[in-house]
Write the structure tokens for this entry.
Amino acid sequence: MRITLKTLAEKLGLTYSGKAGLNLDHICAIENLDNGGVAFVNSPQELSDLPTPTGIFDSRQKSIESISAQMDGAIIVSQNINNPSLNLIFSDDPLKHHIEATALLYDPPDQSRTVHPDASIGENVHIGNDVTIDARAVIYDHVSIGDNTIIRAGVVIMANSVIGQDTLIYPNVTIRENCRIGNRVIIHPGAVIGADGFGYYQREGINLKIPQIGSVVLGDDVEIGAGTTIDRSRFSETIIGNGCKLDNLIHIAHNVELGDHALIAAQSGIAGSVKTGHHLMMGGQSGIRDNLKIGDGVTLFARTLITSKTNDHEIVAGMPSRPIKIWRQVQALINSLDNLFERVRQLEKRLRSAEK
């Protein structure tokens, strides 16, 4: 989509300077700013990344004014930045308005607002207004789908599940029976919601299955990454709170209750029956042992494993996890082990000499 600088600023509710009629048609980073692009910066120092025909701008050798004629793009900047030779949009939150500009410049996902004739729709299915269901999607009996939701090709939604409004489910997602998906949820390709939890017991050396008869509940504004799996509970519900964002290839085990607004990076896992507070943050390849209670605002560094309950707002690292201050001290000691061993060896040598 193409839009003028003036119109973009007006739609964002912001003021601007520069060429009112400048046509803008794509979003980019400041280091890739080109004709028709829209970038953003938060500080004057970031303008040093402004590109030139010969490479990255060097603030020690060239002025911004000397290259402004070659830059027919726009920059969303904080209020304290001003330069009459650039096309600027002034914002109190450049990142936020850059994201809003993206929505204005790029078309939303294709919506036919119809059910494709090659989709398989079961009995007693409620389909809201303006719902899009692509070819080869399979909707089982007694499913409810809210208004404006988009269900892509190959999605399977099993019986008695409920899908909220304005939700986007990408191809080849599977949602098992009795699951509830909130409003404005995004589920990326290959995710599985509601597979059986990993529940077994042994009798006479034989592994026997424990039926998993519960469900999964995703709150509003949740995003689930590609290939991520969320297991149904044994009795009641596995819960993903409002606003949670899960990266690709994450596993959430049965009976977990994930508090609102969690951010979890790829290849992480939460074992069964964990209950977390709000605003949990997990770095990549991190994990939480089963049956733990995790406080509000807890942060895990990458490759951290929590093995005991935590208090609110703890920052932890390592395996097993330690408070970040202690973990850094331990890491410093580990890096000094060679020197420490050598000192001990020399001390032992001197002691043996003294004894002789």
Remarks:
- The chain has two domains: 3-105, 120-328.
